[in-house]
Amino acid sequence: MRLAGRGHDGRFGIASGALSLAGCFLGNFLASAFSVAAHDHASYVTYAMNGLPHVAEIIGADFQWMDLIFYAIGTYFGYRYALAPLRTP
User: Fold this and answer.
1) Among 87, 88, 84, 75, residue whose Cα is nearest residue 7
2) Which of 64, 77, 80, 83 gives the lowest tally of CB atoms within 10 Å of its CB?
3) Can you give the pLDDT at residue 19?
4) Is 46 within the bounds of a domain?
């Protein structure tokens, strides 16, 4: 975001935080799909693609309170690093 935005506007920080949060959700979804596929000795891709309509259910079933901490950390640092000034050599 810092390189694409070329500025320190708050919009880029919010966009970066939202993308970081989406990445955390995607990581939890894929980890759940992969663990179920490994348990059933099936294809990871099949489970991930079949689970897309049920993302909220899958993430909710595997949710732990520690996930909130990781979501908060990911969102914070996504926001923070987008607003940090670029270092020029």
Assistant:
1) 84
2) 64
3) 92
4) yes
87: left (phi > 0), else alpha (psi -120 to 50), else beta? beta
Write the CB contacts of 50 (distance below 8 Å, at least 6 apart in sequence).
none
How many domains are contained in the chain? 1
Q: Report the alpha-carbon distance of residue 78 to residue 82 in Å, rounded.
A: 6
Q: Please state, in angstroms and rounded to a whole number, the distance separating the CA atoms of residues 53 and 48.
A: 10
Domain contains 18: yes
In a domain, 79, yes or no: yes
Domain span at 56: 8-83
Contacts of 12 (CB under 8 A, 6+ apart): 1, 2, 4, 5, 82, 83
- The one-letter code for the residue type at 39 is H
Q: What is the pLDDT of residues 3-52, one digit of tens each?
A: 666 666 778 888 889 999 999 988 888 888 888 777 778 777 777 777 77
